[in-house]
Amino acid sequence: MTTHIELSPSAERIADAAQALVQQVGYNGFSFEHISQIVGMRKASIHHHFGSKVVLGVTVVRRYAAQFDGALRQIHVSIKSAPDRLKAYADLFETTFKNDHLLCVCGMLGAESKSLDPAVNAEVKKFFQLNLVWLSDVIQEGLANKTLRSEHEPKELAETLLSLLEGAMLVGRCLKTPMGPRRMFDLVLSTLET
Known about the structure:
Number of strands: 0
Low-confidence stretches: none
Strand content: under 5%
Mean pLDDT: 95
């Protein structure tokens, strides 16, 4: 679905800083001035690489989605059973959360969707759709080979599991709990496994 986005080394540094800021303070919580201080570039240089904050936001989401898509493809190739694929999927969120309670880039942007430019929102929506299709496919396979059981449709279960992980990150950050999204996911997954 998503391909790697080629950026110059300077643009990569800017995008890295923007991604970290989104995960820490949200899209509306930073400016090019903040990025300038982090990467040690003048704002004019940042504007040379990214003409606007919207262009930068779209790039950050596309790049994040491409990395996530790569991780999903790797899970699919290296892990065979549906329950184990789902656990590996939850680990992607756990790894992010264990890094100082950071949130998923698109989870954070989703919380700000009412105030984001439509171009950024469109990319966030694509990210979530990528996840829902992947989850639905894994769940469908698990139901078909009887490694998972449920009377609910795969799409409903996919939406539930994605919402659980994103929500667990938000609540965990607020409560500063060591119990991350993987633990919550395991509780629900145990009710689906045969």
